[in-house]
Amino acid sequence: MSTTFYNNKFFQCLFVLLFGIATSVADANPNTFKTLLKINIGMHTGSFDKYDMKSIENVCEELRLFDDRPNHRMAIELILMCEAFAAANVKVDINVSPVPNYNRALRDANGGLIHTIAETVWSSSLTNFQDLYITQEVIRFGEFEKGIYTSPGHPLQKFKQTSLINFKDYSSVTFRHWEHDYKALREISGLVLTTIKFESLLNMLKAGRADFSLIEFPKNKSLEFTYYGVTVLPIKGVKVKVFNSRVFVISKKSKNSKEIFNALERGLTILRNEKRITPHYVKEGIITPAVKDWKVLNSPN
């Protein structure tokens, strides 16, 4: 036989050997996926419209946070989700659709209509949802805090020592379905009023129909919060903690759900180890180092 035959045979065998090794390495590497993962995500209508999601084709590359106003946590956490997939070396094609509310989004995910939600959810709210994969804690137990906010001229702002305030002498307002806020206010407030819109809540504080409410700290140094043209201020020195954790969920009924969940979980582990999760929340005021020494008014139980 000619040397050409042997040379060709040699290179053929070498190619097969190298291809086999490369394939084995790819299969053994959990960070390698052979196909693009397509993910359908539900986002609250308010955030969907605010960030003009319908005009965005590549979510992970095009979604931007605002520099001059408060950002919705949903947008922050959608970017965090993108970073987790990137850290896991997984390419994703995300399609975002609007959903009317948090509970509807959970039901849609549990039923397999969407893969996940563009925000973390309270781990305690998942008891009745059996068809969801649940990630590790993203906002860890007790990290989520809120301030006690009033209108600027309210008498509660005039106390120089918050230890002299008996909050049981004052009324508060929140949403009934915000179970953690409602529970905390029932503990510290004399009367808890409820409403159905955030604009209404702020207007009740402005008009004096309620004395205070619980609001996430904004990202400015003064911690002053302005929305719908209404400004409210925190009572400095006191806060409440949400004694729960927040997690991402992935529908077990959706296509490639296990692969998506595993990739997200790996990515979150990498981000946590590299200390890249908390800074997102610190930057936007959701976790606020400036209030770390303020007194916590509510109890864990």
Automatic annotation (TrEMBL):
Region forming the signal peptide: 1-28
Identification of the protein by name: Solute-binding protein family 3/N-terminal domain-containing protein
Keyword entries, A-Z: Signal
Origin organism lineage: Bacteria, Pseudomonadati, Pseudomonadota, Gammaproteobacteria, Alteromonadales
